[in-house]
Amino acid sequence: MQGPGTADRGASDASPWAANALGGEPSAYLRQHAGNPVHWQPFGDEAFAFAAARDVPVFLSIGYAACHWCHVMAGESFEDQDTADFLNANFVPVKVDREERPDVDAVYMAATQAISGEGGWPMSVFLLPDGRAFHAGTYYPPRPMPGRPSFRQVLEAVREAWLERRDAVEQNAATLARGIAAAQSASAVRLDAPAAVLDPALLSAAVRALARSEDAAGGFGAAPKFPPSAVLEFLIRHAATASDTAEAARDVAGRTLAAMARSALFDQLDGGFARYSVTRDWSVPHFEKMLYDNAQLLRVYVHWARLGGTDGYPAAEAAAVAGSTADWMLDSLGLAGAAAQASQGGAEGPAALASSLDADTVVDGVHSEGASYLWTPGELAELLGPADGAAVARLMHVSDAGTVSEAGSPLHPGHALDGPEGALWQRVRPVLRLARAARPQPARDDKVVAGWNGLALAALAEASAVLGRPELLGAAERIAGYLERVHWTPGQGGEPGRLLRVSHDGSARGIGGLLEDYAFCVEGLFALYAVSGRTRWYALAEAILASACTRFAAGGALRDAAGESAQVLNAQGGRAGMDPFDNATPSGAAAFAGVLLSSAALSGCSERRAMAGNILSLLPPLATNAPRVAGWLLATAQAALAGPVEAAVVGAGTPERTALHRALLLSPSPGLVIALQDPAGDAGGGQVPLLRGRTAGPGGSPQVYLCRGMVCDLPAGSVAALRARLATMAE
Q: What are the residues whose beta carbons fall under 8 Å from the beta carbon of 525, sequence distance 6 or more?
């Protein structure tokens, strides 16, 4: 054991840990810290070996590029030379981009919550050189605050414990790792057990529990409020079925969707949603805009429009929000650089979507939260004239006091804009958009995350059908092609293929995809196949799903990661982790269950449907006790109970077949799975088992074969007959 002041003995300027090593990293978040005087190392075996060689703890800092408080802590502490010197002398500092390494983020978030009772980013965790955590927190200020020590105080206390009470430190780490392992055991799924039988009453009970927790301002709970995307998907699916809680589900979903879309959470000028609101009424957003949020919300608003809406939140209003969000995603997050274009053969339009826009805008060298989005009454009057400026300030709750800071307020109507208000807004909106475009803009994190692009792929494909915008289908196909070329490596010699999680500048690198990446990509590809009929996408989905089954479901147990890091495994007590709860995105397990159900319907594989049933066995204790973190499990269970309704569309590619296909795409049935004969010819259709043996009508006329529960109707040759049979199957 080293004595005080000797923790860096043996280190020299030539030592590999004696310099900041982030300059060559592709992650935008890591590069943001490349200029810090802290000697940051990327997460990996080498950094932990440095810590073991020096006999010092690892200080692990986790954040992401769009995180406001990550920028704050960087400016206050990581750019401070004295703090950096202390860190460098007594720790091996390691930086992690949580969006690149959600496996790292998940286990140390569990540790942080267990130790401190809170979680969030920046996350600050202290580790043994083998990866086990022994102390943790989130943001630490440069000076003590009520209830929160300064960062320097924490560093000194940890150093003192490491040097003087090592046995206690190691005991704490061992106890914590055992606790995380026990939690993993409690949520384990056995895929080789008999599949559980779903009880429909569970879903109605979940609707009633959600209705009880609904907030009068829309959404659930108090501030801060996050968009409950997965829960909304469940409520919309439930509303499309025959049950005594269908209307309640529709009402709760409609109120939340309306409240978010009519608030400052939704960008009233450019479209797209901010990450969350710091107020109950959605009036003050936290301004980062994430691909994963907008992909999920685009799909939810599309599904609401398809469902038909309510008087309180009409389908047409939701369709406009969906269209605006799709445009924002492609315009603001679309990547069409040389490398991406090359991977697409020079196709026009974005080839993939970036991860996020920052919460902050750098103005005169200073990070200012939401600066691009804020307005004052004076600015509005100067741009629009005194009368219109004052009217818009009242309409959008822009006051002299400012709701965010003296810099101003975001645009927050808080209600539907129609009549004279709507006319005023349509007149002034182009002027305000132009003025805002001339301001400094938030930085974009250009990394491409496979799973999030899979979510976007599903949303854009379905939006193209429901909104009648074929250009969105073209965008979805370009994204699918990028994922296939850049992120996916087909299997060779009996080995499963591999999906890489992240790419930068058209080149994938880093860890293999997690369960969520595989599942989200398969979900997107199945949706794209249902709309386009191109069996290329079905075949790719099945190949990725087969690899996921091998990597994450081997040995009868499901896990979220395929052993990418020994340190992560140590931190969770040697057990492979599986988190059943939704977070910012659906849980990987729930998403995997959903694509297993779709695959079973398209392929006839009963084993995959049984695996989905095993995963859904997680639902009973969650449906009423914690439905807000089980939204995608609930949505998947709703699809399982409602179907599969298998629809095979065959026949010549005539306007009549297009009408039949469109009627299916516009059906809100949650259990519906569509197989469309490949428009390129019958040869491709043979790849989809659901189409085998299905023949066209007399003279090659198109028709739809509908089956449910292994019982098939006679084929329907008209839209009226098809709709009638779909309605019967929904009862």
A: 454, 457, 480, 537, 538, 540, 541, 544
* 208 phi-psi bin (left φ>0, alpha ψ -120 to 50, beta other): alpha
- Alpha-carbon span 397 to 264, nearest angstrom: 10
pLDDT in tens, 19-38: 899 988 888 889 899 999 99
> Residue length, the chain?
731
Question: pLDDT tens digits, residue range 125-170?
Answer: 999 999 999 999 999 999 988 888 999 999 999 999 999 999 999 9
Q: What is the structure's pLDDT at 645?
A: 93
Query: For 305-362, what is the HEC assignment?
Result: HHHCECCCCEHHHHHHHHHHHHHHHHHHHEECCHHHHHHCCCCCCCCEECCEECCEEE
Interatomic CA distance for residues 431 and 384, integer angstroms: 8
At which residue do the structure tokens 């409950």 appear?
A: 228
Side-chain-facing half-sphere of 525: CA atoms under 13 Å: 28
Closest among 204, 237, 198 to 610, alpha carbons compared: 198
Q: Which segments of 562-702 does DSSP mark as H helices, in order?
A: 566-571, 588-603, 606-616, 620-625, 631-642, 655-665, 682-685
In contact, 672 and 237? CB cutoff 8 Å: no
Pairing of strands 352-353, 334-335: antiparallel
pTM: 0.89
Each residue's pLDDT tens digit, 562-606: 877 888 888 887 777 788 899 899 999 999 999 999 999 999 999
Place of tokens 């996921």: 548
Percent of the chain with pLDDT over 70: 94
How many Å is the maximal CA-CA distance in the chain?
A: 90
Whether 475 and 460 have beta carbons less than 8 Å apart is answered as yes
